[in-house]
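Typical record is below.
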Amino acid sequence: MPDATKTQTEAVAEAAAAPAADAKKQDKPRSLWGDAWFDLRHRPMFWISSILLVVLLVIAAFPGLFTGADPRDGDLTNHFLTKPELGHFFQPDWFGYDGQGRSIYSRVIYGTRASIMVGVGVTAAVTLVGGLLGMLAGYFGGWLDAVISRVTDIFFGIPFLLGAMVVLNAFTDRKVYVVILALAFLGWTSICRVMRSSVITAKQADYVTAARALGAGTPRILFRHVLPNALAPTIVVATIALGGYISAEATLSFLGLGLADPTISWGIDIAEGSQAIRDNPHALLFPAGMLSLTVFAFIMLGDAVRDALDPKLR
């Protein structure tokens, strides 16, 4: 009998301790990134934009899965005045044909690759260059900060699209990597300033002072303590800017100074479709709609990430 009573008592004690242990486990503080991920999971805007971007990335990587038509194959028997067959899903005539008898649907699909490559390539380049320069300027200060800041001011004074037009005009063969280098050459300044201000704030924190007092070297302090805590604003700016770079590429291609044939680009198709917008509006609307959807998805994702990483906006 005493053993039974003891067993019941232990069972009651364990049952009472279980909720307390669970509450203690739930109250365990999360890191900035863990807290941001917890917040993102409850945002419909994040999931909508993420699903759109995953679909766009799959289209860019494997366009043959979505259409079997050759985007460069022109057949003048397919007159561009023929209306789109909106019921023929995923068929070459789904979006109609352009002035050269090429399938607009297949060109919209294959044009995704160039736009995504330019956007991701430029974003990666400006984040690497601008982030590194901003980190050095913010951490070391002094004459290095003064030099980098003045160079940044000079590049800030150059209008982005006008400067890109001047740079690209110097190249006769404007492939994807040329456009990436031209846009990255002028687009690193915003990332540099954001990273600089974040590093200046982070290097004054107590954990950096403690690491320095314990004898940690400059590389360890920069990459183990300062960079992880200064990276969040840079990621937000880079994510939002990615959509802007895709739009800039389309604008330059529309003006004839960006990508050129035989590269397939939404900007090129928009330029060709604009010449017959009164008689053939679908040749303009479908590539323009795909461009708008892509830019919109990246901006939505950037807004969701910004709201999750900035506690003031919660």
